[in-house]
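=== RUN LOG ===
request id: a7f3
mode: sequence -> structure
chains: 1
length: 68
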Amino acid sequence: MGLLVKSYFKGKNNSKESKKDFNFGNFRDDLLRGENNSLEAKNVFAGLRKLQKKFEDVYNSTGRVLCV
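=== RESULT ===
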């Protein structure tokens, strides 16, 4: 799960001015907090599910473990 969350965080914070290190505080502050916290959390976890599905699809299509 750590690689999944870290990949999602890096994907959402990939701009040049936003080179924050990955940690729980930055993940929470950047992705889970906003005007509507419950909606923000719902959208983040939907994005995590989609990313997990992509990881699974790549793994199942290659039959090998990915080295990241």
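=== NOTES ===
The longest helix spans residues 37-62.
The mean pLDDT is 81.
=== END ===
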